Task: inverse folding
């Protein structure tokens, strides 16, 4: 038996007035997903336990069968693992976003959590400047992918409670870092360094937002988690453009597959990802295929664009995958997400997420679609990490 997890990041939503009080999944035309849903076990699961922030870090741990209340220590150390950064006992890793801010009197407004959707090359250039100007024997800045980067801070403040920048879009930022003098100083200094950098001057001339500051959040130390091989005796791989997902995969003992042209947005190399997934299935038991683009669209608050992104996903990922799986006799597909990202609030939220489990030998005829409302007619799993065990139990 082969197992494929289609990790469709941020797709779950709520009913949207502009869509006739329907969710984007209910509006989108998804013939390939409908084919699966007609023959699948459908249900809802809770990827984010109460008391934990509704982020992809927590949700992805749940999705891979790990209890976040037991294994979650923070987002940044998961991403650091992907970059091959070794954290020592006293090291604290911080997520370091390159963001776009606007001066507002003595304060700043958070305008874009992604620094205008930087490319990987642009992010690396700016992070090298930050390391040169702000790095020292205690703090080291590492470039990741685009706006997603890492700071390793010896004996850094684990207690810092700073929200992710996508949660404070359009808000003044000083109140969120007021109690952390060193972090506030770094933020202001980064603004001075990056505001007039040639790369940002060029971006502004092209009508793009500048990546003119850094934002530190999501700190933690490396978690100790058992591998999927140790728990389930399966060989596995993960395909993602996002350091966070690759980092969790690395800690879980999964093979990390890099695909040229994988961006983390809707302009990603869908064809290459699907082909890499099918090729990997010839060598391993399970492949996680992660697509971030729909979540990024959700953060813009544009419901119609989210519908369009779901339709693209249906064709480019699910349709291509089904076509390429014709040579496999026995396989199962889990299609779900790691959290909700309602376009109304433009960020992640708690709440149940729809899932489907398809088996190649299924004779089901559900008459239902993979939507929030139809999946509510099926199973409900309050402990999100139990979904993965349910998925692979028939290995």
Result:
């Amino acid at each position: 038996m082969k197992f494929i997890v289609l990790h469709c990041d941020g797709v779950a939503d709520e009913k949207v007035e502009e869509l006739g009080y329907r969710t984007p999944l209910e509006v989108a035309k998804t013939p390939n997903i409908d084919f699966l849903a007609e023959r699948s076990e459908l249900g809802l699961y809770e990827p984010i336990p109460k008391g934990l922030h509704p982020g992809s870090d927590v949700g992805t741990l749940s999705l891979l069968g790990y209890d976040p209340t037991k294994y979650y220590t923070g987002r940044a150390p998961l991403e650091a693992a992907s970059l091959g950064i070794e954290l020592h006992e006293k090291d604290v890793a911080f997520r370091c976003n390159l963001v776009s801010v606007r001066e507002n009197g003595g304060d700043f407004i958070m305008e874009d959590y992604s620094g205008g959707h930087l490319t990987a090359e642009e992010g690396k250039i700016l992070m090298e400047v930050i390391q040169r100007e702000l790095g020292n024997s205690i703090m080291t800045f590492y470039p990741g992918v685009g706006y997603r980067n890492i700071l390793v801070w010896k004996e850094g403040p684990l207690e810092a409670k700073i929200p992710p920048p996508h949660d404070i879009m359009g808000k003044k930022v000083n109140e969120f870092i007021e109690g952390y003098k060193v972090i506030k100083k770094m933020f202001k200094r980064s603004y001075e360094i990056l505001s007039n950098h040639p790369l940002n001057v060029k971006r502004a001339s092209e009508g793009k937002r500048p990546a003119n500051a850094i934002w530190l959040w999501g700190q933690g130390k490396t978690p100790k988690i058992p591998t999927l091989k140790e728990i389930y005796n399966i060989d596995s791989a993960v395909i993602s453009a996002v350091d966070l997902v690759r980092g969790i995969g690395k800690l879980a003992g999964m093979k990390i597959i890099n695909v040229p042209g994988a961006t983390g947005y809707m302009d990603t190399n869908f064809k290459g990802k699907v082909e890499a997934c099918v090729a990997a299935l010839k060598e391993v038991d399970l492949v996680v295929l992660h697509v971030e683009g729909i979540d990024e669209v959700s953060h813009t608050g544009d419901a119609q664009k989210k519908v369009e992104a779901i339709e693209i996903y249906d064709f480019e990922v699910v349709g291509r995958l089904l076509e390429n799986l014709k040579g496999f006799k026995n396989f199962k597909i889990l299609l779900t997400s790691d959290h909700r990202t309602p376009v109304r609030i433009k960020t992640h939220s708690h709440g149940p997420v729809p899932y489907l489990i398809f088996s190649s030998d299924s004779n089901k005829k559900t008459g239902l679609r993979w939507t929030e409302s139809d999946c509510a007619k099926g199973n409900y799993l309050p402990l999100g990490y139990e979904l993965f065990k349910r998925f692979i139990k028939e290995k």
